[in-house]
Specification:
The structure holds two protein chains of two kinds.
Chain A: E1 2-6, H1 10-22, E2 30-34, E3 45-48, H2 53-67, H3 69-79, H4 86-100, H5 111-133, E4 137-139, E5 143-148, H6 155-165, E6 170-175, E7 180-184, E8 191-194, H7 197-202, H8 213-223, H9 232-238
Parallel strand pairs in A: 1-2, 1-3, 5-6
Antiparallel strand pairs in A: 4-5, 6-7, 7-8
Helix pairs in contact in A: 1-2, 2-3, 2-4, 3-5, 4-5, 5-6
Chain B: H1 10-19, E1 52-53, E2 59-60, E3 62-66, H2 93-105, E4 111-115, H3 122-138, E5 145-149, H4 156-163, E6 168-170, H5 178-184, H6 190-210, H7 241-244, E7 283-289, H8 296-310, E8 314-319, H9 338-353, H10 358-361, H11 375-381, E9 389-390, H12 396-400, H13 407-416, H14 424-429, H15 434-437, E10 441-442, H16 455-474, H17 484-488, H18 496-500
Parallel strand pairs in B: 3-4, 4-5, 5-6, 6-7, 7-8, 9-10
Antiparallel strand pairs in B: 1-2
Helix pairs in contact in B: 2-3, 3-4, 4-6, 8-9
The chains are: A alpha/beta, B alpha/beta.
Bound molecules: iron/sulfur cluster (SF4).
Chain lengths: 252, 507
Amino acid sequence: MTVFTCEDSPDAMLTCIYDAWDSRLGHRNIRLMLEPLYETELFCSYRHIDADSEKAGKVVRSIQKKISPGAWRMVYRCAMSSNPEKLEIIYRFLLYGFAYGSPALQMLQEPAVAAFFELDRRTGNEAHRFMEFIRFVSFPGDVLVSHISPKSDVLTLTAPYFSDRLPSEHWIIIDDTRRTAAVHPRDGEFYLTRLSQEEFDRLSAPAREDDPYPDLWKGFFRYISIKARENKRCQRGFLPLWMRKHVTEFEP
Amino acid sequence: MEVKQNDLSLQEKLNILADAAKYDVACTSSGVDRRGKKGSLGNSLSAGICHSFSADGRCISLLKILLSNDCVYDCKYCINRVSNDTVRATFTPEEICTLVTEFYRRNYIEGLFLSSGVVKNPAYTAELMYRTIFLLRTRYHFNGYVHVKAIPNAPAELIQELGYLADRMSINLELPTGESLRRLAPHKSPSSILRPIAQIQSGIENYRLSIGKERKMERHRTNRYLSGTIFDTAANPQLNSRETAGLLPPHTETPARIPPARGSGSGPLPAVREGKPFVPAGQSTQMIVGAARETDFQLLTASQYMYQIYDLKRVFYSAYIPLNEDPALPSADTAPPLLREHRLYQADWLLRYYGFQASDLLSEDRPSFNVLLDPKCDWALRHLELFPVEISRADYSQLLKVPGIGVKSAMRIVSSRRTAPLSFEHLKRMGVVLKRAKYFITCGGKMMYRIPIEENFITRQLVGEDRKTAWELEHPDSYRQLSLFDDFHFHVQPQPDDLMKSATGQL
Ligand code: SF4
């Protein structure tokens, strides 16, 4: 068994897929895994693959052409997932995709296809929930700042949506876990960036005291609930506790 | 208790006017796609977005408030009725606009749901609402979702103008029979409710025709694969007069049909503005469940009727919560009939997505839903002669009638059985709920187990399962989460307002 390994970035994963495919070792004799590897097995040989944007680009174009543009969007979403098996799941789907073309997307009887769909659905759902539950805090200079701690890397999956929605606002969405941020200047395009410790600290200051809207919102949130129908379990099911971390109305 | 308006802070007003608005259930933002644009604030997604969930487990999508809880009417069931002694508050249009835009920027909400008590008189109130929405759209450049209530008896011109600014409008039917309306809402009449509904319907049709769409609202795309749905038969409703006896009469004086634009509005209403969206997300209504004597059959028939005659986008149901002591109302310690409400939502889904008619599910002789079984199981057990269906051959509409198979799994079966035969294991992976479906299907000619297709036997098996859901619904403090993703097997994200009622059995 040969194990192809790479770091957790789209380019590296796509390159890894390219090299694994190209190795002609037989699909049954290989596995694809993300680094860091926590334990290695005795009878496997490991090959580390570095990102190569040319090979990555080729894989993207083949997926778009041989399967469909929609399949590429799914692969991208899956690549943003927090599931450590994602690379292997994507690869196993692509075997069907390249063999059958777009009809592979109908072959849900196949466990490999079903697993890929499931991963896509989960990542898509998580991204969707952040569109809903992201909260901005107003910073001096009319800048809206949001902190999130998602499991998946949802920044590039949510930022385009906020660009459309708040085109004439300055806003920043910060992924606290990865220390990355999507930055959107008023009337401009958003871009991704890594934050230095200093920037991060500055943007983590507590909310302004003179901003009345968080309290107004909390009041609304309390009064809109109907006592006779109270159902905290149901509320927890829809809005799990771990997602409430940066959500204004659940702040103490 | 007299409290001067200007003694109230903005926070107090907001609390009072949210508190007074919370019994309206339609807090959805769905039905219209609109891109954002530079210089404006907001966009709209047709799938709808839910921003939070309140302690009662309901989705919060919109800033749902009353413009005022002052009211000169005296609807018996309403907390704001003139005969109640409560603190009254009224927002200024600017206060509402600021709240909407500042909440929206912080991503608390999708937009505004604005309703109101009748302040002074309907015309005065409608004028205030119009001013508010007009300011919000023009001066505050708000491009997000707006749902406005039409005030009964408001002037037609104002309703028309509001229609050009709002995404959705609604007027609550509350009580679907003329008799209950007279008893419980003495200031409203059937025509004060149905006239504006018909007017908005005609506005929507004119707009749709002017941009080259079909007259009727689009329905879920899977309805195309069904025949005889309530939407096909809408032109010629299959409701006989016995079924609709006592229900509100259709509004007969057709509002002047406005010829598509071309200037001179000679009718009573301003001319259609060619291509200018008019209530693009459609209109909805709400009925109270359990305030008066209406049966489930009457309520569901009324819904079908509203979908067919008035092309409503949605009908919502609201379990009656006693707020006032009144001899005309159920006693104040009545628990909200949450299970009835739940069954009505399930049945409503069956009308809109599964090709059922109200009369398939209930009848005059059997006017109430089965407490123990969801309406689809109940129907299937009364039609055992149609089962089992063979998975490799049954068409989409037959598959949909099987308990445990939803819209999504039926579509998946139809598309994937082309490439390879399906087994029970495959069905399970596609989201079919086998513990229900197994009594009603064969795969390659075989049933999953040797099960007698016998009504009493199957009923006993299924009831055990649904009893749990029913019990949990009646005891909301301990009920588990049920997700619509699992229950309805949809491709599309369910809309937030559906999510909140997703406490459904697998249909
Ligand atoms: S019109 Fe009737 S339902 Fe509406 S606020 Fe007044 S009393 Fe309440």
